[in-house]
Amino acid sequence: VGVTDNFFELGGDSILSIQLVSRARALKSLGVSFKLRDLIRKPTIAELVGTVSEAGSPKAGPSPILALNRQMPGQPPLVCVHAGFGTVFDYEPLARRLEGRRGVLAIQSRMLLDPAWRDRSLEEMARDYVDLLRERQPQGPYHLLGWSLGGTLAALMAAELERRGETVRRLALLDPFVPSPKNGEQGSEPGLDDWRDDLAGFLSVMLPGAPVVRPQDEREAVDAIRSVVSQSLDAPRIRTAEGLGVAMGVDELTQAFLTARHLKRLSAAQPACLPVAAAAQGWWIAGRDADRLRLEAQLGGSAMPWRTLRCDHFEAPRDEGFLAEMLEEILAGGAGSPAARPDTTTTNLADAAE
Predict the structure, then answer these.
(1) pLDDT digit string (tens) for 303-345?
(2) Across the strands, what pairs with 127?
(3) Which intervals carry biased composition (Polar residues) (predicted)?
(4) CB burial readout 192-221, b (16+ within 10 A) else e
(5) What is the pLDDT of residues 107-130, one digit of tens each?
């Protein structure tokens, strides 16, 4: 491994990231200190120790585009878009399957990398991500994949790419968030869940087995969030499983939660996806037939080839059926799967409900 080799392109993933950052803590006496956010921003040894200058102007922030495996010259990459937490490590299982076959790029939330950044709408984010993507890949065809909120953003990116005259060869949507037409109506105020409930769910993912002290104060204040995060981070965990939060400090975890809450607000304000010419394909968990039909209508009305996954929403990016079908399709060079036909296991809404 050379000092300019990219940690993630070499096969670094979320678990290895945790191990690397944890081991680096022993080097503080030698002047080496970095956090997970630093590793994502500067994924080479040379950048981490400051021997390579930052690319671009001093005012330019770090790029939110991260390579999850080795890129394949001459082949357009599969571009994966972050979900509601803003992170992209959920796409690692697919990136590992595609190693040596297709490069995988992932777009993470700018707000994770730059606390001063604040997105104003999902459509603005999609335009920003298209600008960033075209710096890496100036021309199509483009291949997009989005899970959860990433599905909504991928669809909006496809619409923006087509508006600019580009071709979207693949628009793969993995149990995507579907905006509601009621969002954004005059006089409507999209509601959010209690921030304390959201924080408990967030920490259960980032710090599995850690206790969460629920504040009595209902006000959503940064100091209150940081206090809960600090107590959960310092407390002994019930299970031995380690989430990404182990490699993150209090400030990073707090910023990650603030990012997730802001993305949730933007999602609640988005009225619909935009029509696209690209043929979308979908993988859905059971019970979301109404959402699927509403999304088909938003994207232009054409029936979407789809499959039902036998897992829950958070397991979808690691579902063996999804991973196998994506690998098979990409190796075959197609863009219209799953199997280029609607789900044969559920022939109508009544069967799907059963």
Answers:
(1) 889 999 999 999 999 999 999 999 998 888 765 545 444 443 3
(2) none
(3) 343-354
(4) eeebbebbeebbeebbbebebeebeeeebe
(5) 999 998 888 899 999 999 999 999
